[in-house]
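### Sample
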Amino acid sequence: MKKRAGKRRKKSILIAAGTVLVIILTAAGYQKINREIPPAVVEAAQIGEWLEYRDGVMISLDSFRFLTGDEQEKLYQETGFETIYETKLLEVTLTLENTAAESRQVAMSDLYAEGIGISNGINKNIADASEGRYSSNMQELQPGEKKQVCYPYEILKNQVSGKEWAEITEREFWLTFSSYPVKKKLLLP
């Protein structure tokens, strides 16, 4: 009887020691990685301020808004787009400026609308079918040219809790187009 209890005790001690060792090694690994790879530097711009989007191409946020339910329903009918989940459409208007001496092809598909726990790209299905309401994902800019573009971002109800969904239009969002080593974002206050 005492032998069994002693064996169980030894086994429990070995399991506990092994668990503690794994936790210590995991924490040491995280600390090593955080020392070797520094956190991203954040560059943020408010409405009307400029950030470099790509080599020689600057970007500025002009405006943003959530479409009303009626506007959204009308847009879905016009484009023939059907949703599975309840959604809100965030419409963002930007200005691009080519400061380079040559023309530039700019892919806008790297521009994501983000919030805490949410990250969505441009809704291509709506943008392509909108008959000119929204801009193309590929923009060509001549030297010195400024161009205003507009894109829809779809926020899905299943991306947040019910309480958060009720307040989704009050939530803080930003547009991100670079994450590391410099995180660049346009704030949607």
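Helices lie at 2-36, 69-79, 124-129, 162-166. This sample (DUF4352 domain-containing protein) is used throughout the tutorial notebook.
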